[in-house]
Amino acid sequence: MPLIVQKYGGSSVADAERIINVAKRIGAVQKSGAAVVVVVSAMGDTTDELIELAHTISHEPHAREMDLLLSTGELVSSTLLTMALRELGHEAISLSGPQAGIRTDTSFGRARISRIEPARVRRELDAGRIVVVAGFQGITAEDDITTLGRGGSDTTAVAIAAALQADRCEIYTDVEGIYTADPRIVSGARKIDEVGYEEMLELASLGAKMHPRSIELGGVYRVPIYVASSFSDTPGTLIHARLVEGMAQQLGAAGVVSSAGLAAVSIVGSGMQNTPGYASRMFRLLANGGVNIDMITTSEIRISCIIDESQGRDAVRLLHEGFQLDRS
């Protein structure tokens, strides 16, 4: 029997109607013959609302208490989703991060998973249940609750998938996959069908939807990660070890991240490792478009240029068009 780990983001479980729709999706996967573990984020803007509430009570909330407070958001969504599954006739059980065996260090607010003890999850799966795990949280050796930081539910899902040796981890959110550029900036942005772990790690570090730590885990333990929308049946993006034949010879994506008056515009692609000329072409495209470069940083598969924030959107459009990323 195949084992699938699914993760649903906050927008996917933002209200009762969406929770019921997600429950139907999960139920359909189980009926197809797969065992299912589900990791959920807090509903909608719950985490932000809890942070705001804490700061109305305390000017500087204690880190331990803040983590315990924030962990409640995922407990609410996981239990409500389990209720929805049971209402639809499915055997299901919700588990907190600690109950699911997620052990972390003591870095409150940004804890790292030290290990997963999946015995309880396996036991529930063996009993034929859908297991719904509260993401974003774990427990220390001193029995304190910790949170994993922003995007931590992605990391939870991939870590559980690795511990259970799942067939794949599916990340469902409000976008239909990974794109060659932000569709809100570049109208011709194209969805990438498949991408390697290294390329996706670079994209994640540049602000793409996935959490970088989750990509690192996926790469180390070779967990295939599928990113898709929970609001449609449109095929998403598969992140895995095998590079797509065409992708190995070309650029994968372009993106822009802005901060404090500056923007980093980047191109990412495995083809840079063995093919010269990408840097000069990038610099020429920006220069011809009137974009001034303040600083340059590179890795084996990424080139980033620091530019004025006001030119960020124009720069990513120039690169997307210049490298013909809108073409399959």
Automatic annotation (TrEMBL):
Pathway: Amino-acid biosynthesis; L-methionine biosynthesis via de novo pathway; L-homoserine from L-aspartate: step 1/3; Amino-acid biosynthesis; L-threonine biosynthesis; L-threonine from L-aspartate: step 1/5; Amino-acid biosynthesis; L-lysine biosynthesis via DAP pathway; (S)-tetrahydrodipicolinate from L-aspartate: step 1/4. It catalyses: L-aspartate + ATP = 4-phospho-L-aspartate + ADP. SUPFAM superfamilies: ACT-like (SSF55021), Carbamate kinase-like (SSF53633). InterPro entries: AceGlu_kinase-like_sf, ACT-like_dom_sf, ACT_Aspartokinase, ACT_dom, AKii-LysC-BS, Asp/Glu/Uridylate_kinase, Asp_kinase, Aspartate_kinase_CS. Keywords: Amino-acid biosynthesis, ATP-binding, Kinase, Lysine biosynthesis, Nucleotide-binding, Transferase. GO terms for biological process: homoserine biosynthetic process; lysine biosynthetic process via diaminopimelate. NCBIfam families: asp_kinases (TIGR00657), PRK06635.1-4 (NF005155). This is Aspartokinase. The lineage of its organism: Eukaryota, Metazoa, Porifera, Demospongiae, Heteroscleromorpha.
